[in-house]
Design goal:
The complex is a heterodimer of chains A (450) and B (327). Chain A is α+β, with helices and mostly antiparallel strands. Helices cover 29% and strands 22% of the residues of chain A. Chain A folds into three domains: 2-137 and 145-154, RNA polymerase II/Efflux pump adaptor protein, barrel-sandwich hybrid domain (OB fold (Dihydrolipoamide Acetyltransferase, E2P), Beta Barrel), CATH 2.40.50.100; 161-206, Dihydrolipoamide Transferase; 232-449, Chloramphenicol Acetyltransferase (2-Layer Sandwich), CATH 3.30.559. Chain A contains eleven helices and 19 strands. In chain A, a hairpin with a 4-residue loop joins strand 4 and strand 5 (45-49). In chain A, helix 9 packs across helix 11 (428-443). Chain A is elongated. Chain A starts with a strand and ends in a 7-residue tail after the last helix. With 327 residues, chain B is an alpha/beta fold. Chain B contains twelve helices and 14 strands. Chain B has a seven-stranded mixed β-sheet with strand order 3-2-4-5-7-6-12, sandwiched between helices. In chain B, strands 9-11-10-13-14 form a five-stranded mixed β-sheet, sandwiched between helices. In chain B, strands 1-8 form a two-stranded antiparallel sheet. In chain B, helix 2 links the parallel strand 2 (24-28) and strand 3 (53-55). The chains are: A alpha+beta (450), B alpha/beta (327). Chains A and B meet through helix 5 of A and helix 10, strand 14 and helix 12 of B.
Chain lengths: 450, 327
């Protein structure tokens, strides 16, 4: 028997994908649950899991090639047949123009299902034995040895099954070098991050007391370095250029006294301590933005050049820095969420954005965007609008500043917010009204409950 | 340097020690008049006379107890078992008495006895005569377990074992007795509890001992180097108790990978115990799970082909090493 591995549909809108990297070579043994390849859709790179065990007989497309959903990417020899023969057979079939077409997705699915259901008790057995001392799978094992047919692993929603697999050594090296493991793709069995994966990347700086941001490898004196654009980088280049060229941006900045937010945050975090949740000032800003947008629908909108669409829901885009790029996952219906849920959901989105594990529909449908450089200590900045949205809010660092209250100069924790808006649709006063609301909500956070 | 057979190296060790210390004597089934079932003690009766080299009845439980008693009384017996498989009937003497007398007498008695003989799967001896007994004894506090893989190590370690004041389980193999190797003419001893890094390498640490080293591990290591470009650091444990964890840990800290090979059954086998100690000590150095290549968990078949098939092979070792190396 052989099994075809086909291009999966990784999102509702996906019609084709790019094969970024093969994680197995022809001739490699592969077990159900192993990752065979990395597939790239618009912005996300995802690992592709196989549900068959055997030997990789043929890789049908090259790294970097595109393939339509359902087309055959690889063939696995699952039985005792010689992988070389299987490869010959599929290569011959491939070179015939029509007629001998590869197995369709439905057929593959149909042949897989019975095997999976017939051994539905197998996974426990298989799991128990993999946790213990292993012998090579090709070892005969007398009368008691059975081929354990693993059922396709469940899609895990919680933390338990989705946890990162890292070899102890790789974990140690990552810790020493301050590398975020979430951002890595493991090349080991089952996607395990191993030493080589960690050594392959440059360390990233961490927010907790980093002495200096880690710089990328320096370019030597008198040398040049040519860097081809990644798919993500060229998408960013194109869309930001289009935005800045086509949209007449204007900017308004307001200073907000966040002393009360800071106090409330301390109190809330004490209460949330048992749940290990720590809300951030940024979460308060997101919450306030959602409330303010409901009152100023002119900014919770998209513009397609001829008409404006306003939204009754707030889907907040959150700009996330990833190695060499930027991703804007969308927190849907944030106006219905409390601070705790905002924290949990944005943390999840940010983590998965950094690991390039977002689903397609988690990166689309935003109605407004915030970009937060608070943790970098930036005092004030302006952001470029993320079209078709009509505005974006740049959130700087909350910091103690000397401000005048009455006749006194006092130290207050202040935060500067800068709104970039599309002047074709939004006027200065509209933007100012929105910022004023935002200021009031953040200076008297109790109003968000009203 | 003179080339000796494994059995000649053993004989030389016993002879030298018996010449050195008149309390040392040899007993066992057919060690005297027949010159030894495997000719290890050939000529020793003639040399030392029947007071110091003598035959026992076919009663392992009896003469192992005799040896423990003699050791308690100040002699230094060497007891030859025709096969370690036969010691299943004398576990009481070895595990209960030999291992515990020193402890239970508060150090008033010591038990300087050496039990030696062929261990493991020889060739077509069937299920009851092919036991690998190392894991049975290596887990017992109070015993020392030695398993040499070369004539040189055999001689040096047997001499140290005979001088050791604690009971020593000395594991040989019928299939290795004719193996030849360089053995210095001048006297030497080797320390117990020190493993030998017999080949240095950068990619993966392979740990083994005794017969599989000579039968499959060394050929596999050469094969891995020549055909797969994998540079193995090969460690011959030589002593199974006390285990030289230091040497292994130092190697794994360098290679980040480890494969253990023995001919025991896997579950609760010798390698399982070694594996536990390595993973405990080296956890943060490991880039891959430790692999363990062992015999299949079945009674040892009499049939030549089936016996071969149950044992670790060069192929199995190569495949496990590659797995540990993510190749």
């Amino acid at each position: 028997m052989s099994a075809d591995i086909t291009m999966p549909q990784l999102s509702d809108t996906m019609t084709e994908g790019t094969l970024v990297k093969w994680l197995k070579k022809e001739g490699d043994r592969i077990n159900s649950g192993d990752m065979i390849a990395e597939i790239e859709t618009d912005k996300a790179v995802m690992e592709m899991e196989v549900f068959d065990s055997g030997v990789v007989a043929a890789l049908m497309i090259a790294e970097g090639d595109k393939a339509g959903v359902g087309s055959v990417l690889a063939v696995i020899a699952t039985g005792s047949e010689n992988p070389v023969d299987v490869k010959k057979k599929v290569s011959a079939a491939k070179s015939q123009p029509a007629g001998a077409s590869p197995v369709s997705r439905e057929e593959v699915a149909a042949t897989r299902k019975p095997a999976a259901t017939a051994t539905s008790i197998a996974p426990n057995f298989a799991r128990a034995s993999t946790g213990e001392i292993r012998e090579p799978d090709n070892v005969g094992h007398g009368a008691t040895r059975q081929q354990a047919v693993a059922v396709p692993p469940l899609h895990h929603e919680g933390n338990g099954g989705d946890r990162l697999r890292v070899s102890p050594l790789a974990r140690r090296i990552a810790e020493q070098r301050n590398i975020d493991l979430q951002s890595l793709t493991g090349s080991g069995p089952g996607g395990r991050i191993v030493r080589q994966d960690v050594l392959n990347i440059q360390p990233a700086s961490r927010s907790a007391s980093p002495p200096l941001p880690t710089a990328p490898a320096p370019v030597g004196n008198g040398q040049t370095q040519v860097i081809p654009l990644t798919k993500m980088r060229s998408a960013i280049a194109k869309s930001l250029q289009a935005s800045k060229q086509n949209i007449p941006h204007f900017y308004e900045t307001i200073d907000v006294d966040v002393e009360d937010v800071v106090k409330l945050r301390v109190k809330l975090n004490e209460i949330l301590e048992p749940e290990k949740i720590r809300v951030s000032i940024g979460d308060f800003v997101s919450k306030a933005v959602a409330s303010a947008l409901l009152r100023h629908p002119a900014l919770n909108a998209t513009f397609n050049g001829s008409e404006v669409t306003r939204f009754g829901d707030v889907n907040l885009g959150i700009a996330v820095a990833v190695p060499d790029g930027l991703i804007v996952p969308v927190l849907r219906n944030i106006h219905l969420m409390g601070l705790k849920e905002i924290r949990q959901r944005s943390a999840d989105l940010v983590d998965r954005a950094r690991a390039q594990r977002l689903k397609q529909d988690e990166m689309t449908g935003g109605t407004f965007t915030v970009s937060n450089l608070g943790t970098y200590g930036i005092r004030e900045f302006s952001a470029i609008i993320n079209p078709p949205q009509v505005a974006i809010l740049a959130v700087a660092a909350a910091e103690k500043r000397a401000v005048v209250r009455g006749e006194q100069i006092v130290a207050r924790t202040m935060l500067s917010l800068t709104l970039s808006a599309d002047h074709r649709i939004v006027d200065g006063a509209t933007a100012a009204d929105f910022l004023k609301t935002l200021k009031i909500l953040l200076e008297q956070p109790g109003l968000m409950l009203v | 340097m003179p080339i000796l057979q494994f059995r000649e190296a053993l004989r030389a060790a016993m002879t030298e020690e018996m010449e050195r210390d008149e309390n040392v004597f040899l007993m066992g089934e057919e060690v005297a008049q027949y010159n030894g079932a495997y000719k290890v003690s050939e000529g020793m009766l003639e040399k030392f006379g029947p007071r110091r080299v003598f035959d026992t009845p076919i009663s392992e439980a009896g003469f192992s107890g005799l040896g423990v008693g003699a050791a308690c009384c100040g002699l230094r017996p060497i007891i030859e078992f025709m096969s370690w498989s036969f010691t299943l009937v004398c576990l009481d003497q070895i595990v209960n008495n030999a291992a515990n007398v020193r402890y239970m007498s508060g150090g008033q008695f010591k038990v300087p006895v050496v039990f030696r003989g062929g261990n493991g799967i020889a060739h077509q001896l069937g299920a009851t005569h092919s036991h690998r007994m190392e894991s049975v004894f290596a887990r017992v506090p109070g015993l020392v377990v030695v398993a040499p893989s070369t004539p040189y190590d055999a001689k040096g370690l047997l001499k140290t074992s005979i001088r050791c004041d604690d009971p020593v389980i000395f594991l040989e193999s019928e299939k290795m007795l004719a193996e030849k190797g360089e053995v210095p003419a001048e006297e030497y001893t080797l320390p117990i509890g020190v493993a030998n890094v017999e080949r240095t390498g950068a990619d993966v640490t392979v740990v083994s001992y005794g017969r599989p080293l000579q039968r499959v591990v060394r050929p596999a290591v050469e094969h891995l180097h020549a055909d797969h470009g994998i540079d193995v650091e090969l460690i011959d444990l030589r002593t199974l108790r006390p285990l030289d964890v230091e040497t292994i840990a130092k190697s794994v800290a360098k290679t980040n990978r480890c494969v253990i090979v023995d001919e025991d059954w896997g579950y609760c086998g010798m390698g399982s115990g070694i594996l536990y100690k390595i993973q405990k000590r080296c956890f943060d150095d490991l880039d891959a799970p430790i692999e363990y290549v062992h015999s299949d968990e079945i009674p040892v078949p009499f049939s030549h082909n089936l016996e071969e098939a149950m044992l670790p092979s060069v192929d199995r070792i190569v495949s496990s090493v590659k797995e540990a190396c993510y190749r």
